[in-house]
Amino acid sequence: MVLISELCGGADGSVPRAWEAACTGKDVCLPPSGASYLASVRESAAKFAGSVGERLVRVDADKARGYAGALDMAKFDAYVKHVNGWTRRLPLAFDNMAQELNLIALLDLLQLGSGFRKELHEATGRGASDTINFGCMSLHISQTPIDARGLQALTLDDVAQNFGIPLLGKERPAIEGTTAVMISEPGPLRPLAEIILGCLHDTARRLEQGGFSSLADFVIRTCAEKSTAEHLVKKLVMAFPSLRDAADVGGQQVYLFKKAQLIAYDVCQRFGSADPRFAFPDIGDMTLFVDNVVPAVMQHHGLLVPCEEVAAKILSGAELSLVESTAMRAAAIVAAQLVVACTSRAASPSENGEVSVCQATLDNYWWHQGKEPGLRVLQRLVCKATVYF
């Protein structure tokens, strides 16, 4: 395989400026050669949460232990199984496994835009996740090519049309005092459309330059080399800046790798039982796929205690800085590991259908719980300038 992480973008390397600004981890130093990327997430999150991040967010260890002991395991099993089965519930027909895998990988690559949740609901009635699902399914149903070449051919108007994202906002007179000629200003959701387009273009260019026809081709060939989540996550992060979910805070690297882990997890859940290439034995080593929802649910349960300033920002729906959002997300990983360590079922699934408790399954549980009517009203993390969640 070509080491495509060393390759540049397209012919002129141009990408939308909104994507460039949102891809904050593209220049962060990656874990050293030979290091485990999954272990690096846990270790770097713990180090950051215990130093710089602790001033912003505190992990309540006592609450974590109490929460683990009181966890409703029947509800846990039901919620995790529901989330695990989402790929099988896609209302779509596929010609083959590779086509389905490609769409699932694309859906996970584009799990972004949560910071625009309010604007999306106001303009379209859909949140960020539903917007991405709607857009990707629209591309599939319209038979738009979503391989490396097809994704590079997409325009901003294509993104707006397929994802239902309005590009224009209010109109204003071109000349003050007359309405003969009106000019439309860029709408508040235009940056989101640009971030999506940049994510698609940059990823597709790197695929083509590396000799891969699609995301599915990349995943299949990577898993043929070595059938582990660790290997796939590492290759995805090295190859694609839009998956390089990391931050450098004062020279300290914090690795989160949410979407790369999510791709590996969903591929394993969908295809692992039928194809040994995707039956990853190390799924339990993954961390939370930490986004805007899960930390909010964990804060609700008292596992995370943000400082007064960060708590006020979250409560008011104000945008968090990169350092503040990183602190919340890193602390969530630390708190989740405490819950896992205090749970008696933190092992392999049993024969009676019970789900093992690990960070990945806790993520499924908390994410689903955050969609309950009583918790859906919780204020979530807001960070617009990110391509990672």
Mean of residue pLDDT values = 92
Major sheet summary line:
2 strands, antiparallel
Helix content: 40-55%
Strand content: 5-15%
GO biological process, one term: tRNA modification
Keywords: Hydrolase
Protein name: Queuosine 5'-phosphate N-glycosylase/hydrolase
Enzyme class: hydrolase
Could you characterize the architecture of this molecule?
One of its GO terms (molecular function) is hydrolase activity. This is Queuosine 5'-phosphate N-glycosylase/hydrolase. Belongs to the QNG1 protein family. It catalyses: queuosine 5'-phosphate + H2O = queuine + D-ribose 5-phosphate. With 389 residues, the chain is mainly α. The chain has a domain at 24-126 and 211-376. The chain is built from 18 helices and 6 strands. The strands form 3 sheets. A two-stranded antiparallel sheet has the order 1-6. A two-stranded antiparallel sheet has the order 2-3. A two-stranded antiparallel ribbon has the order 4-5. Strand 2 and strand 3 form a beta hairpin. Helix 4 packs across helix 17. The model is unreliable at 1-11 (pLDDT under 50).
